[in-house]
Recover the amino acids of this structure.
């Protein structure tokens, strides 16, 4: 049986981290944006370790996030 509380907790953490990444990129705080991306990866890996979600999908998302690069923005 799926632990619904665990799924909700990780989902909220992931969505919160995504919002934080967007905010940090706007504020040009790239180190903090990267840390929030790793928060997402940690939540996904925790769910993966407990086999609560599709493992192939988790691997795809983790690989995608790890390939993110902060682009230089000219103002």
């Amino acid at each position: 049986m799926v632990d619904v509380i665990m799924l909700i907790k990780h989902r909220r953490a992931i969505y919160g981290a995504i919002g934080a990444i967007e905010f940090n990129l706007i504020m040009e705080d790239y180190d903090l944006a990267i840390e929030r991306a790793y928060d997402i990866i940690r939540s996904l890996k925790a769910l993966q370790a407990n086999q609560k979600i599709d493992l192939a999908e988790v691997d795809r998302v983790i690989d995608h996030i790890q390939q993110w690069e902060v682009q230089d923005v000219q103002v």
Residues 4-26 form the longest helix (23 residues). The chain has one domain: 4-66.
